[in-house]
Design goal:
The protein contains 6 helices and 15 strands. With 281 residues, the protein is an alpha+beta fold. It is elongated.
């Protein structure tokens, strides 16, 4: 009986070991790039008086969506109206003085050319004309200031958002510099979503994409934000920025993305899911 040489099939085993090593060394990004996010306010603003005066109108109740520049409160303008009228009258007087000075200077220039008027008279007329021009500039500035103060008596929304209930009552005397906030506005479109990325996941993602910094990595990520119910509220987003430090307790880096919220579905404090997908080059 002839003994046949035994052949050991070592190559498939070697390939298998090689594949296992690859799987262990490569980051499982598909599993790692799902995070819990929290909705945060992007911007808030306070409503405050721009000038001293009695509050005569409140044009909101609280809870409404207001637009930037919308009139929300008005103060008593009777004194301010008088200031504008006085400034307008002063401007008219300055215009009349300027016109008279221009006519006098023009007449003396003609007489000087005919050798009838003296140079001293012409110099006086020229100086009076310059003074009249300066006087008109002052009158224009005073009118602009008076109109600005009058406009401040209408308190407008500095940003668009949801406004709180007013904290002042009709008839209250509002002070521009020392008064407390009259209301608060919270911007809800867009909002920020903050999610925590384990630092090891960040490093693995950088290695997998060949990026060296977060600035290089962010354009390669596409974010999807979903509610706890599973409903998608936004997709195709990009990370905006990351925190400067890593949390000592969790070892995570906080990343923020800006989420459009036109229907105001997302509210500050809500928990959402953020899924990050790597875009193929």
């Amino acid at each position: 009986m002839t003994n046949k040489p035994l052949h050991h099939k070592t190559r498939p085993f070697g390939v298998l070991v090689f594949l296992c090593v690859l799987l262990i060394a490569s980051p499982t990004l598909a599993e790692d790039l799902v995070f819990v996010g929290t909705v945060e306010v992007r911007e808030t603003a306070v409503l405050s008086a721009g000038t001293d005066g009695q509050l005569t109108e409140i044009l909101f109740q609280g809870g409404e969506l207001v637009s930037e520049g919308q009139a929300l409160m008005r103060q008593d303008t009777r004194t301010l109206d008088i200031d504008v009228q006085m400034a307008e009258a002063q401007l008219k007087a300055a215009d009349a003085q300027l016109a008279a000075a221009q006519q006098r200077a023009s007449r003396l220039i003609t007489l000087s050319e005919r050798k009838v008027a003296s140079n001293a008279s012409l110099d006086d007329a020229t100086a009076l004309l310059a003074a009249a021009e300066a006087g008109r500039m002052i009158a224009v500035a005073q009118l602009n200031r008076a109109e600005l103060e009058l406009d401040k008596a209408t308190i407008r929304a500095p940003i668009a958002g949801i406004i709180s209930r007013p904290s002042a009552a009709l008839g209250a005397f509002l002070e521009a510099e020392a008064g407390p906030p009259l209301a608060r506005i919270v911007q809800l479109d867009p909002v920020l979503v903050a999610y925590k990325v384990p630092y090891e996941t960040r490093l693995a993602t950088l290695r997998a994409t060949g990026a060296t910094t977060l600035e290089d990595l962010f354009p390669k990520l596409s974010l999807t934000v979903t509610l706890q119910s599973g409903e998608t509220v936004a997709s195709g987003l990009r990370p905006e920025f990351a925190g400067a430090t890593v949390e000592e307790a969790s070892g995570a880096l906080t990343v923020f993305t800006l989420v459009p919220n036109p229907e105001r579905t997302l509210r500050p404090g809500m928990t959402v899911t953020v899924t990050a997908d790597l875009q193929q080059d």
